[in-house]
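Sequence, please.
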């Protein structure tokens, strides 16, 4: 490893304290971060990508400045984890302790209602739910197993995207389909982005000095994937995503809600099968399919401003569907105290926020134009005029929530365990 990285890592680590390694494992990538749960300080982050190919690459960023990149031809999840731990060992200080590893796990089904310490039973349960998230759960398990292989005694915690939504009442999560589809096959609405919705709802309550009890808000997580959630008294009571992340809002490449009848209609017209049509709804639709200029909202907004009619329509459809969903979610709240924007689009697109607020005046929301233009990813804050109903930008931090859940779950265990950083 280049000497500059090690020295900068030592400078960044500055001091002692418990650290949590957070992993978000995909089928061919691993995103990682090293955090101090209490303060939220980030010491390191990065990604291993194109795993399993000759082009596999590891990028490591030490905060605040130093970065390194290295090839890992044919590298696996385990190879990335091993190299990350090598970097920690080379840059660590004697007082620094690796408390545990926290993992994003996409689908917990109905079994997991909160974050949980990983053991063989949890691994088996997550594996058994892979049919509900075939692209995600096996990859999430690969990250867990990679840590086990390198540090078998290190405590690990699974933090589920779906857990926050397990408080939804049956009338919000059930579909009007044959009963055996639910009882035998688990067909229901599960919701996703739970870590983000939970984090920003707690942050919004803190920002406004409101106790979670009695506080009612809608959180809109808007990025390449988009969902909105009704949060009442600190818990999720409704959300826009369903059995899969395809349901709900218009997204970067996902269609969101469509008539299920279009599958058989298009199968007959095009000869495509259900898998091919589902793939098109996931990767060729949304802003991508409507705009003709791509899935990035910045590109869509710029093209719409330049007179591109398809881009303008894509923006209008996105805003219309989002506004309609927010208004619908208020039904489960019976009153709206705050609307929270987060995620890449929610935190950065003043245009989208302005258009949405312009459609929701009947809920008591009115844009503060200057505040909306000023608040973004790094600052956050109120973007509506003062009143009984407020709109806020709250930057999300799913990695910090995972780190804090990991520390909390480990601390609540039967024994206190902290593994010294490798040396």
């Amino acid at each position: 490893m280049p000497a500059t990285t090690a020295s900068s890592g030592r400078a960044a680590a500055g001091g002692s304290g418990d650290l949590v390694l957070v992993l978000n494992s995909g089928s061919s990538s691993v995103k990682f971060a090293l955090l101090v749960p209490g303060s939220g300080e980030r010491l390191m982050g990065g990604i291993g990508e194109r795993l399993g190919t000759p082009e596999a690459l590891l990028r490591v960023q030490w905060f605040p400045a130093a970065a390194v990149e290295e090839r890992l031809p044919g590298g696996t999840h385990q190879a990335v984890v091993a190299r990350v731990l090598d970097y920690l060992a080379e840059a660590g200080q004697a007082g620094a302790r690796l408390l545990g590893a926290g993992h994003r796990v996409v689908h917990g089904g109905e079994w997991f209602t909160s974050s949980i310490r990983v053991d063989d039973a949890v691994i088996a349960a997550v594996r058994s739910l892979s049919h509900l998230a075939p692209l995600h759960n096996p990859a999430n398990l690969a990250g867990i197993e990679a840590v086990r292989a390198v540090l078998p005694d290190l405590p690990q915690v699974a933090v589920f995207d779906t857990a926050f939504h397990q408080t939804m009442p049956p009338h919000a999560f059930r579909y009007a389909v044959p009963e055996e589809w639910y009882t035998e096959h688990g067909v229901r609405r599960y919701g996703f982005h739970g870590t983000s919705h939970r984090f920003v709802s707690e942050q919004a309550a803190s920002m406004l000095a409101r106790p979670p009890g009695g506080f009612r808000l809608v959180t809109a997580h808007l990025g390449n994937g988009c969902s909105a959630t009704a949060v009442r008294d600190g818990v999720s009571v409704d959300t826009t995503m369903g059995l899969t992340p395809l349901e709900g809002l218009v997204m970067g490449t996902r269609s969101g809600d469509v008539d299920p009848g279009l599958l058989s209609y298009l199968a007959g017209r095009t000869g495509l099968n259900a898998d091919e049509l589902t793939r098109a709804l996931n990767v060729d639709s949304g802003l991508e399919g409507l705009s003709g200029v791509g899935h990035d909202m910045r590109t869509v907004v710029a093209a719409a401003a330049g007179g591109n009619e398809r881009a303008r329509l894509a923006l209008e459809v996105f805003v219309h569907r989002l506004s309609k969903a927010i208004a619908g979610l208020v039904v489960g709240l019976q009153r709206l105290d705050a609307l929270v924007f987060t995620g890449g689009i929610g935190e950065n697109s003043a245009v989208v926020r302005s258009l949405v607020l312009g459609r929701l005046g009947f809920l008591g929301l009115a844009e503060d134009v200057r505040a909306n233009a000023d608040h973004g990813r790094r600052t956050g804050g109120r973007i509506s005029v003062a009143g009984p109903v407020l709109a806020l930008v709250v930057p999300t931090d799913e990695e910090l929530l995972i780190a804090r859940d990991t520390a909390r779950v480990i601390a609540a265990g039967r024994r206190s365990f902290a593994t010294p950083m490798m040396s």
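Residues 1-16, 414-423 have pLDDT under 50 and may be disordered.
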